[in-house]
Amino acid sequence: xxxxxxxxxxxxxxIENIKKLNNAKISxxxxxxxxGCFVLNKTRDFEEDKQLAQIMAKPFDVHLMVKDVKKxxxxxxxxxxxxxxxxxxxxxxxxxxKYIKRKKLDVGISIKPDTSIEKIIPYxxxxxxxxxxxxxxxxxxxxxxxxxxxxxxxxxxxxxxxNLSFLIQVDGGINDKTIKEVSKADVVVVGSYITKCxxxxxxxxxxxxxxxxx
Length: 214
Ligand code: DX5
Ligand code: ZN
Prior knowledge:
Strand content: 15-25%
CATH architecture: Alpha-Beta Barrel
Number of domains: 1
CATH topology: TIM Barrel
Order of helices and strands: EHEHEHEHEEHEEHH
Largest sheet: 8 strands, parallel, barrel
Bound molecules: D-xylitol-5-phosphate, zinc ion
Radius of gyration: 16 Å
Strand order of the largest sheet: 1-2-3-4-5-6-7-8
């Protein structure tokens, strides 16, 4: 299982803290992008993110919580992420998959906790990542939703049965306790549990222990 860190809840000294995260034992960064429209909050502008991406010494993925997906794909594709994820709830899914693939990037689709999991089935043989939200998208520090575990299990079994290869990524409310509930995920996004504490590596160690004690 890989740990991707979300720095959404770091409100001060972002550049310094990203440099500190470069040295922490996390696998990748997770960029949360919000437009104040698909979700209420709004994140940094693209120029600032470009600067952050230049500082990052680890690969990163981009999670678009935005309505105008194409506009943001045009911007963030320039930063060369591992993949770009948009939300299934936006609609126009087939076209958006093609749009990202044309940029020679891997594609992720995110699904909100209340969206029925079956709705993602028609796209699973075309995409690289499913980003299962374990909290409603829009802010960090929310409580993990228990129903996520069954949703991971469903995707895990489906992938096995159909011999598919998409990654299962889980996002929201992960800490040293809830990580046990998502042990079948390939990538877990962790935000405030790591970034609200000064000792980043300590928190990462606790997460790893949490999975091992399962
Ligand atoms: C929520 C974001 C997440 C989130 C993770 O909309 O997609 O990446 O901020 O943060 P925590 O771990 O604090 O829930
Ligand atoms: Zn996210």
